[in-house]
Amino acid sequence: MPPQISVSQPGSTRLSPADINQFARLGYLVLPGFLPDDLVTRVRPEVDRWVDDGLRARSVASCTDPDAHGLPPLLEIEMAAHGELVGHRPLLDLLAQLMGEEFVFHHLHSDRQEPGRPGKAWHHDYEQQSPGARTHTMVHTLHYLDGLDEETASLAVLPGSHLQHEAKTARAGLGTDLIPGELVIDRLPRGSTVILHSALFHARRPAPDGPGKTRYMVDASYCQVGIRWPPVKPFWRHMLRRGRELGLDHGSWPELFADRHFSEYVSPVPKPRRG
Q1: Which pLDDT does position 128 carry in this prediction?
Q2: I want to staple 10 with a disulfide (CB 3.0 to 4.6 A). Which of 37, 90, 96, 192 is the partner?
Q3: What is the CB neighbour count within 10 angstroms for residue 59?
Q4: What domains does the chain contain, in order, with CATH numbers?
C-alpha cells in the first residue's frame, strides 16, 4: 500500500511538508477514513436514489444530448449530503494547502458500481485544453464510501505520470493491464478519500476472482483559479448557480462556484447535420 496520511481528527487536518511534496512529485494522497461516519451514512442512500430512480441516467443523457433532454430533474449537489460533501470544510481546508486559498468546483460524479462491471482503462482527467500547458492544478477527490477490499474493483495509479504532458487517452490501448511503476490501492476503510492530481494516469481494475461486491464512489473535482477551465457538463452554469444558492461554500470560499473561471462548453462529440 502507498503511504497514508492520518486524518483521525478531520476538523484539524493539516498536511506536512512531506505530504505536500509527495503530492507534487507523485500526484496522489491517500486519506483512510477521512470522511465522518455520519456523513458517509447519509451520502450512501443518496447514491442509491441517484442510481435506482434513474437520475444518474437522466444526468448522463442531459450531458450527451442537452438539446433533446434539457436540464436534468436533479443535480447531485442538490441532494443534501452530496452538497455537504462538496463543501466539506476539512476537505476544502486540505485542498487549500495543495492549490492555494482560491479554487473552483468543477463537477461531481456519483455512482454505485455493481459487481461485474468492466474496468476503466488507463486515462487521466485533466481538463485544460492544451496538453502542454499545465500551469494550474486540477484535482479529483475520490471518496470510497464503503472503502476498498479484495472483493471490490481497485484503483491503480501511475505515480509521477501527471508530470508527463500526454493526452488523456495516451495509455487507453493498455486497457487495465499492469504497467511498470504502477501502484495499486485496494485496501481502504469506510469513508476513505484518495486525492489525485487530475493529470495522473489511473485505472479502475476489476476484482480478480469471485462475484465481488458493490463499490460506492463519489468523485468531486476542483481547480486552481487563474485560468479559464473547460466545463464538462453543458448545464455547468446552472450547477454553479445552485451551489451558490444552496450556500455550499459556507460563505468562506467565494470562488468555489464562480462562473468566471470557466470557458464556454464545447460538446466532445460533433452533432450530425440536420436536413
Answers
A1: 74
A2: 90
A3: 22
A4: 10-261 (2.60.120.620)
Q: Which residue from 195, 234, 193, 226 is spatially nearest to 107, judged by alpha carbons?
A: 234
Q: What is the pLDDT of residue 132?
A: 57
C-alpha 95: how far from its chain's center?
Answer: 13
pLDDT at residue 239 tops 50: yes
Q: What is the pTM of this model?
A: 0.92
- One-character DSSP codes across the chain: -------SSGGG----HHHHHHHHHHSEEEETT-S-HHHHHHHHHHHHHHHHTSHHHHHHHHHH-HHHH-S-S--GGGSHHHHHHHT-HHHHHHHHHHH-S-EEEEEEEEEEE-TT---EEEE-----SSTT---S-EEEEEEETT-B-TTS-EEEE-TTGGGS---TTTTGGGTT---TT-EEE--B-TTEEEEEETTS-EEEE--SSSS---EEEEEEEEEESSSPBPPSSTTHHHHHHHHHHTTTTTTT-TTTT-GGGB-----SSPPPPP-
- Taking only the tens place, the pLDDT of each residue in 143-182 is 999 999 999 999 999 999 999 989 999 999 999 999 999 9
Q: Which three cell numbers stand for residue 122?
A: 488507463
14 or 244, greater pLDDT:
244
Q: Is pLDDT above 50 for 189?
A: yes
